[in-house]
Design a protein that fits this description.
The protein has one domain: TIM Barrel, CATH 3.20.20. Helix 3 (67-74) links the parallel strand 4 and strand 5. The chain is of the alpha/beta class. The chain contains nine helices and ten strands. It starts with a helix and ends in a 14-residue tail after the last helix.
Length: 268
């Protein structure tokens, strides 16, 4: 009887008990939006500050790994990660990602995952990237594009406005249409999702799974760990904004900061 209990224990709990020897406190996933030297919005980070943060990561011995590598580790497909790992993501599809963020991250050879909502992307001049610009970033080998739903809705508001049947269809359309368009336009598999405004619940998580996403990401002052696989459709990311000081940024990356104030909720 005892050997059977031991086997059952390892099957049930080992996937959540294995932590990276090199990152015992988990890995910080950073999320950026707009990076610009002059624009002032709640989602805009000053160019100089962003560059200082990227330099800090290098100077303090951190390794920026692709989000896909972290996903494989969390899923148990990879045994460990580089020491002092960190992940960089950018949401929405601001043109400044192409003109400002990308040249800086490329200088350091940092991989970046872009969570894009296709409704914002076109081939016309605007504040958003074009499909050609996204393809150009992809060709560098440093940028991976994933889904941020079709047009970035606030699911709480949409749920109040719609009948249960209509809301369910709306959610499915947002998840599937984004995935299909991105795959058609860019020719790469779309398996990851970032929730707009960080909003999720059990129903949304189930919808994401049915839409064939393998993992989804929210906003929260927590580091990604294998234990997150109990809820693979709600893996936390730290939102990086202008009001955070460099010491705060250092605490986020290093794991010294776990307070909610370090990663505010989205307001855009």
């Amino acid at each position: 009887m005892r050997p059977l209990l031991i086997i059952v224990f390892f099957i049930l709990f080992l996937p959540f008990a294995v932590f990276s020897n090199n990152n015992p406190n988990g890995v910080a996933i950073l999320v950026y939006h707009d990076v610009d030297a002059h624009r002032k919005t709640s989602m805009t980070l000053a160019t100089q500050k962003f560059e200082a943060q990227m330099a800090w990561i290098k100077d303090h011995g951190y390794t920026v790994i692709p989000l896909q590598q972290l996903v494989e580790y969390l899923q148990g497909k990879q045994s460990d990660l580089p020491k002092k790992s960190v992940v960089i993501t950018a949401d929405d599809g601001w043109k400044s990602v192409y003109t400002t963020l990308a040249p800086i991250t490329q200088k350091y050879h940092y991989p970046v995952t872009l969570f894009i909502y296709p409704a914002a992307i076109s081939d016309k001049p605007s504040s958003w990237m074009t499909w050609d610009q996204l393809k150009t970033l992809q060709k560098t080998g440093l940028f991976d594009v994933q889904s941020h739903t079709y047009w970035h809705p606030n699911f709480k508001i949409e749920r109040r406005k719609r009948s249960p049947e209509n809301y369910q269809k709306f959610v499915n359309d947002q998840l599937v249409k984004s995935k299909n368009i991105l795959e058609e336009k860019l020719g790469t598999p779309i398996t990851l999702l970032a929730w707009p405004f960080g909003i999720y619940n059990d129903d949304l998580e189930n919808a994401a799974e049915k839409a064939h996403y393998t993992m989804a990401f929210t906003i929260g002052a927590l580091r990604a760990k294998p234990s997150d696989m109990r809820h693979p459709m709600a893996v936390p990311r730290y939102m990086i904004i202008e009001s955070q000081s460099m010491p705060m940024f250092a605490r986020i990356v290093s794991g010294a900061s776990t307070t909610l104030e370090s990663s505010p909720q989205l307001s855009h």
